[in-house]
Amino acid sequence: MSERAMLEIKNYSKSYTGGKKAADDVTLTVESGDIYGFIGHNGAGKSTTIRAVVGVLDFTEGEIYIDGHSVKAEPMECKKVTAYIPDNPDLYENLTGIQYLNFVADIFGLSAEVREERIKKYADTFEITDALGDLISSYSHGMKQKVAIISALIHKPKLLVLDEPFVGLDPKATFTLKEIMHEMCEQGTAIFFSTHVLEVAEKLCNKVAIIKQGKIIATGTIEEVTEGQSLEEAFLEADNEE
Amino acid sequence: MKNNIILLKTLLRSTSLHNTFKYTKDKKKKRKVVGNYIGLILIYAMLMVYSIAMCVGYGLVGIIDAAPAMCAVVISTMAFFFTVFKTNGYLFNFKEYDMLMSLPFKASTVAGCKFLYMYVKALPWYISISLAMMIGYGFFAAPSLLSYPVWIILTFFLPIIPMLFASLIGFFIAKVSSRFKATKFIRTVLTFAFVILCFTLRYIIEAVFKDDKVEDTLEDISAKVDTAGGIYLPIRWFTDAVTRTSIISTILFIVSTVILFAVVFHLVGKSYNQINSALKSQATKKNYKMTSQKKRNVVNAVAFKEFKRMVGSPPYLVNAGIGEIMAVLLGIVTLIMGFDRIVAIVTQNAPFDSSILQPAIPFIAFFLVGMVATTACSPSLEGKNYWIVQSLPIEKTTLYQGKMLFNMYLTVPFMVFATICMCISAKVPVLDTIMYLILAVALCAYSSAWGCVCGIKHMRLDWENEIEVIKQGAAVAVYMLPNMFVVMGLTALVIYLGTFMNHVLIALIFILISLLLAFLSYLRVISLAKKA
Questions:
Q1: B13 touches chain A (CB under 8 A)
Q2: Consecutive 10-residue runs of chain B (532 residues): their mean pLDDT?
Q3: At what angle do helices B314-337 and B67-90 cross, to 10 degrees?
Q4: Would you say A22 and A44 are in contact if contact means Cβ atoms under 8 Å apart?
Q5: What is the pLDDT of residue B286?
Q6: For residue A82, pLDDT beyond 90
Q7: Which of A55, A58, A90 sits opposite B96 (nearest CB)?
């Protein structure tokens, strides 16, 4: 592994019994400070790759390293430095927002002062503080997404993995999240997120990978992948070539 | 260890009625929580009364010494069967798997906490039985004072070992099925096979004991319970600990429970990720070609949706289908062995003419098929998908008609099959057989409509895990418990009436009663649907 690589996926493949390969020989590296976009059609293999990265999906082919630790061999070490926000977060509906955030803070061993400060900071930023005492079951999709995002941020992960993070967020929350992503990236956090909104990827990311039918068809810095075109044009070109 | 406690606490809090009551601002929801509490207290009280009555029976015939062992047998059996049905959904393949596994928990921690969660949620049932039997035993046997704290402490350990065995079986079923493409199908078949094996095992064991000429009189319950203690050591340990205040048995029981827990979850933890990955993933072929499609009317379309919902969920399918499968087995076994022989086995060769049981044939079939009505849990199973039917241009009444129709599609063929088999085997005259078939269908109609009344009245959409509404929902309990007792009562009544009344006339009376109940329930469904 290179010194600064926070996430390294090497020849990762995943096929389901009797089905086609959902991920086929995926190789990519996300370094500290990167905002890495993972682009592809619906069903291209983005979530299959992301779920393996965060240790949720078991896999046998290939290797995934987070901060130098193997996801297969040292899952706990990997999870301690990673935060994951799924595309449709299933939170405990009968807990209040604050109870859920405290649960995550407890797991990561955050002190009372630290959690209070961080929860307040992010809850204020996402304008959700007032609702934290209500049951999650009463939240809208966007509010649940905001709670999931706050739970991912409060323990200051070294690697932030997000699956379609902007779906369901209002424009202000979307802007706020982008700002936070920039801020985290400046502090050395690596961010790896999937999206099919090319404009977002183009403006936000310094690196992208395009996945099609489980295979990476283009990868590199935005400049390398686009070669002077827009990301949309580059994506369509790569898509048609394959 | 700290993380284990945090996770367990959160899991319990996330489904606790108390948390919902405390934080919800919805008054209707608060009232529902209070209703649920009252319902639960009533059920626990019923269990306690039944358990004390059992002890009174033992006390009156002078076999009160069998009470501790019987308590252990009842709790162990309940814990085992309840857990077999619940592992898939609680232990494996649960909704928040991705969220939990992405946090720094070991797989064995998550599995262990999920098990303990399942255990704590079921504990009030076992405590109700155990404490009631302790009181009954204390009254008749007047044991030493030390027996009481030992009994209370061991009550907490009694369900654990059977639950661990059931979890282990669930684990093996999940592990085997995760290797196949048709994961859900294999899992369902294996679960069915296992449950049927458990049900039939009792008769196989009894057949073996028959050779030893063990008579089935009340006094010989002690002998049977002793045998159970010989096969399953925790029963013996519990009995020794309570009746003789044996410290060794108490320690043996507690230590073996703890060791077994550690071993099972070390084993489960090793393949936990692999099994869940396989269970939560679905293979795709991506080779569909557009073919001609079928048009269904709205009610049938809803019924078809219900069918797909059922077959798509192994816990739902096993729960809804177990009665039907048992009815088919009963029908086949009756045909092969003969109605008289089956009656002799079930009644332990009680000396009476089996023909007096003929009017009860539809009720016997219904006892199995009507045990579960899909209509009781299907309104709640809509869960977060409820918006789909809410936003579609269909009346609520149509939606529930579809749900009832599906329950009819599911139950009628099995009821008819089991009834015909038993009628043929019992050599029931043709006219009587026709009447019993009509009664069977009428009972299905009643079951579908009454189940739907319970389902709508106790609809709960905010569940965390579908098992909560399939196995433990208020709707299911309200449908199942009275239904079970009513059917047992009606069976006894028709048998009694059959001794002096014409069987066709009896069937006709009960057809009319069933149809009336079905009609009234249907009207209630319509009225509830309009309000929903």
A1: yes
A2: 86 86 83 82 86 88 86 91 81 82 89 91 92 92 90 94 91 84 81 79 60 50 66 88 90 94 88 80 63 77 88 86 91 90 75 81 93 92 80 83 95 96 94 96 95 91 82 82 81 88 93 94 93 74
A3: 130
A4: no
A5: 59
A6: yes
A7: A90
Q: Tell me which chain A residues have a C-beta less than 8 angstroms from the C-beta of B101.
A: 54-56
Question: Quick one: pLDDT at residue A2?
Answer: 43
Q: What is the pLDDT of residue B37?
A: 84
Give how far A91 is from chain B: nearest CA, Å. 7
Size of interface A-B (CB pairs under 8 A): 116
pLDDT digit string (tens) for B130-154?
999 999 999 988 888 999 999 999 9
| Buried/exposed B498-507: b ≥16 CB within 10 Å, e otherwise | beeeebeebb
Rounded to whole angstroms, the Cα distance separating B432 from B423 reads 9
B223 HSE (CA, 13 A, CB side): 12
Contact A17 B13 (CB under 8 A): no
Task: Give the closest residue to B450 by CA, choosing from B424, B476, B468.
Answer: B476
CA distance B356 to chain A (A): 53
A58 interfaces chain B, CB cutoff of 8 Å: yes
The proportion of chain A whose per-residue pLDDT surpasses 70, expressed as a percent, equals 97
* B2 vs A216 pLDDT, higher one: A216
Q: How far is CA B7 from CA B113, B169, B472, in A?
A: 7, 24, 22
Asked if the Cβ–Cβ distance from B462 to A94 is below 8 Å, we say yes
Q: What angle do CA A53, A57, A63 make, to 5 degrees?
A: 50
- Closest-approach residue (CA) in chain B for A138: B24
- Indicate the residue of B3, B101, B276 with minimum beta-carbon distance to A107: B3
What is the SS3 assignment for B170?
Answer: helix
For residue B15, what are its two tokens? 């489904």
Q: Which residues on chain A are in Cβ contact (under 8 Å) with B105?
A: 79, 107
Domains and CATH numbers, chain A: 5-81+157-241 (3.40.50.300), 90-156 (no CATH)
> Alpha helices, DSSP H only, in B178-246?
183-210, 221-231, 233-243
For the record, the structure tokens of A198 come out as 């090319």
Q: Tell me what pLDDT residue B446 has.
A: 94
Q: Quick one: pLDDT at residue A1? A: 41
DSSP string, chain A: --TTEEEEEEEEEEE-TTS-EEEEEEEEEEETT-EEEEEE-TTSSHHHHHHHHTT-S---EEEEEETTEETTT-HHHHHHTEEEE-SS----TTSBHHHHHHHHHHHTT--HHHHHHHHHHHHHHTT-GGGGGSBGGGS-HHHHHHHHHHHHHTT--SEEEEESTTTT--HHHHHHHHHHHHHHHHTT-EEEEEES-HHHHHHH-SEEEEEETTEEEEEEEHHHHHTTS-HHHHHHHHHHH-
A98 in B contact zone (CB under 8 Å)? no
Helix (H, G, I), strand (E, B) or coil at B295: coil
Cβ atoms of B379 and B456 within 8 Å: the answer is yes
- Separation between Cα atoms, residue B213 and residue A46, nearest integer Å: 67
- Strand order through the sheet with A190-195: A82-85, A159-163, A190-195, A35-40, A207-212, A215-221
Cβ-based contacts of B10 with chain A (< 8 Å): 92, 95, 99, 103
Q: What pLDDT, in 10s, does the model give residues A122-149?
A: 999 999 998 898 888 888 888 899 999 9
Residue B450: the pLDDT is: 94
Of the partner residues A80, A93, A135, the one whose CB lies closest to the CB of residue B464: A93
What is the per-residue DSSP string for B346-391? HTTS-SS-GGGGGGGHHHHHHHHHTT--HHHHHHHHTGGGHHHHHH
Task: Measure the CA angle with vertex B373, ends B465 and B394; round to 5°.
Answer: 80
Assess contact for A193 and A165: CB atoms under 8 A.
yes
